[in-house]
Design brief:
By secondary structure, the protein is mainly beta. The protein is built from 2 helices and 13 strands. The protein has one domain (about 1-240): Porin (Beta Barrel). The protein starts with a helix and ends with a strand.
Length: about 240
C-alpha cells in the first residue's frame, strides 16, 4: 500500500509541474475542509476529519483540526456464530476511539491553476489525544443456557462456541456510556493533493504518517500484545470550501 502511495505522489508531482502554478487570481485566505480517513490501524473506514485554516502569508497557513478515529488491534479476527450466523470479534475487550484536536501548519509547495491542475501542500500537525476505551459487548450463553449481553471478560467468557454474536451498533453506544478516558498526544506529517473545477471549492486527498502515544498501555485484545504507541500510515479523502 505504501509503495503505491509513494508512486502516486511522484506521478502527481510531475503532473503539477506540467500544469503550471502561482496564478494570482487563485489566492484564498480561509478554508474549511471535511472528509473521511483510512489508516493502517483501522478497518475499511477509519473515521472523520475536520479542518479550518487561515493564511499566514501567500505560502503558509495555520489550521485547527479535529479527527475522530476508530483504532483497531491487528489481531482482531471476525468469526461467525454457529447458532445465529452473526459476526463477532473473539477476545476483543475494548473499542478505542481517538479524538484528536490538532494545530498544524500547511505549506503550499505548488499552486494549481484556478480551474485546473493539482495543488500540492506539505503538512505538519500535533495535538493532544483523548482516547475513549469502551467495552466490547457480546451475546453470550452462560452455563445455565441463558443468553445475556455482557462486556467481554477473558476470565468469564472462555468458550467461543457459546457466543451468539455482538450487540451490534447499539453495543457501540452502550460501550461509549461506560468508556474510560485515556490521554495521549499525536503527531502527523503528510502531503496533500488538491483538485477542483472551481477555484473556491476543493477536493483531494492527503497521505502521510501518524504517531499517537498514550500515557499507558491500551488493552484492546487482552490475549495479544498491546501497546501504548500507535504508528500508522493513512490516506484521507476530503472536500471543502475557500474564501
Amino acid at each position: 500500500m505504501l509503495k503505491r502511495l509513494i508512486l502516486l505522489c511522484i506521478v502527481l508531482l510531475q503532473v503539477s509541474f506540467l500544469l503550471g502554478q502561482d496564478q494570482e487570481d487563485n489566492k484564498y485566505t480561509r478554508e474549511f475542509i471535511w472528509g473521511i480517513n483510512k489508516n493502517t490501524n483501522s478497518g475499511l473506514f477509519g473515521g472523520l476529519i475536520l479542518k479550518h485554516g487561515r493564511a499566514i502569508n501567500e505560502r503558509m497557513f495555520h489550521y485547527f483540526g479535529l479527527e475522530l478515529i476508530n483504532v483497531k488491534h491487528p489481531k482482531e479476527l471476525r468469526y461467525r456464530s454457529n447458532q445465529t450466523g452473526n459476526f463477532f470479534i473473539w477476545a476483543k475487550q475494548h473499542y478505542l476511539y481517538s479524538i484528536r484536536p490538532q494545530y498544524g501548519r500547511e505549506f503550499i509547495l505548488f499552486r494549481k491553476n484556478p480551474q485546473q491542475g493539482v495543488q500540492i501542500n506539505a503538512i505538519v500537525a500535533a495535538g493532544p489525544t483523548i482516547g475513549l476505551l469502551a467495552p466490547y459487548y457480546l451475546e453470550y450463553q452462560d452455563s445455565l443456557g441463558i443468553i445475556t449481553i455482557e462486556a467481554y471478560n477473558p476470565n468469564k467468557h472462555k468458550y467461543i462456541q457459546d457466543v451468539y454474536g455482538t450487540d451490534g451498533l447499539p453495543g457501540v453506544f452502550r460501550g461509549i456510556g461506560n468508556a474510560q478516558v485515556k490521554l495521549g498526544i499525536n503527531l502527523k506529517t503528510s502531503i496533500s493533493f488538491e483538485f477542483g473545477a472551481f477555484k473556491r471549492n476543493v477536493t483531494g486527498f492527503e497521505v502521510g504518517f501518524m504517531l499517537e502515544a498514550f500515557t499507558e498501555e491500551i488493552i484492546i485484545v487482552p490475549t495479544a500484545n498491546n501497546r501504548a504507541i500507535f504508528p500508522s500510515a493513512f490516506i484521507s479523502f476530503f472536500y471543502g470550501t475557500r474564501k
